[in-house]
From TrEMBL:
CDD domains with a match to the protein in the record: Anticodon_Ia_Leu_BEm
Protein name in the entry: leucine--tRNA ligase
Family: Belongs to the class-I aminoacyl-tRNA synthetase family.
This enzyme's EC code(s): 6.1.1.4
UniProt entry tagged with the keyword Cell division: no
Species this protein is from: marine metagenome
GO biological process terms held by the UniProt record: leucyl-tRNA aminoacylation
TM spans (from-to): none
InterPro entries the UniProt entry points to: Leu-tRNA-ligase, M/V/L/I-tRNA-synth_anticd-bd, tRNAsynth_Ia_anticodon-bd
Keywords for this protein: Aminoacyl-tRNA synthetase, ATP-binding, Ligase, Nucleotide-binding, Protein biosynthesis
GO molecular function: ATP binding; leucine-tRNA ligase activity
Any one cellular-component term (Gene Ontology): cytosol
Pfam family, any one: Anticodon_1
Length: 217
């Protein structure tokens, strides 16, 4: 009740491969719940309840970095959703997209439209609500799966170990060109990292570009 059905569903798919046996940790739900909260704030102005004014009707190409990441995200989420044990990786890609979109001054509506369709299989309730709030009248469940441009998907994803006080506790997958702030955010939101942060204060997050993340608590 505290976090909602979407948070629980997302946590169960994000904690690791579905076929793996992983103990339930309520604290791990908090990270994915915060991700959904950021997603909501990205799309909705909390003051008015209307569409966030940073979302524009300009073409996607007007924001090249976000546009390229959108195409990479469509490809990665599609490929990982097709394999049940890779759904956790698909969610990682969705988180990276939200991190970059949150930092952007302007977000083309085209990108939001595509993102919500990718989110829908994983968090159907919030995706449906946001879909309606952005002006759609048909259910998102009936929307077509987005397509991507292969030419815009040239950068590969890299896997980075995440340490807590020097001990590896999780792995995250991010785009090779992901900025440091997004890498930190993705690492701190990982449920397994959340488990090791309960009751502790994060003193420092060290990112060794392309290699590892170390959370010091």
């Amino acid at each position: 009740v505290q976090y909602g059905a979407d948070s629980v569903r997302l946590y169960e798919l994000f904690i690791g491969p579905v076929s793996a046996s992983t103990p339930w940790q309520t604290s791990g739900v908090e990270g994915v719940h915060r991700f959904l909260q950021r997603t909501w704030r990205l799309v909705v102005d909390e003051g008015t309840g209307e569409r966030n004014p940073k979302i524009s009707d300009q073409p996607g190409e007007s924001e090249p970095e976000l546009w390229r990441l959108m195409h990479k995200t469509v490809k990665a989420v599609g490929e990982n959703t097709d394999e049940i044990d890779k759904m956790n990786k698909a969610i990682s890609h969705l988180m990276v997209f939200v991190n970059l979109a949150t930092q952007a001054e302007c977000v083309p509506m085209t990108c939001i439209d595509v993102f919500l369709r990718l989110l829908a299989p994983y968090a159907p309730h919030i995706a449906e609500e946001l879909w309606m709030r952005t002006g759609h009248t048909e259910l998102i469940a009936r929307a077509t799966w987005p397509e991507y441009n292969e030419a815009l998907c040239v950068d590969e994803m890299i896997t980075m170990p995440v340490q807590v006080n020097g001990k590896v506790r999780a792995q995250i997958e991010v785009a090779a060109d992901t900025d440091e702030a997004s890498v930190k955010s993705t690492a701190l939101d990982h449920p397994k990292i959340q488990q090791h942060m309960v009751g502790k204060e994060v003193r420092r997050v060290i990112v060794v570009s392309g290699r590892l993340v170390n959370v010091v608590v």
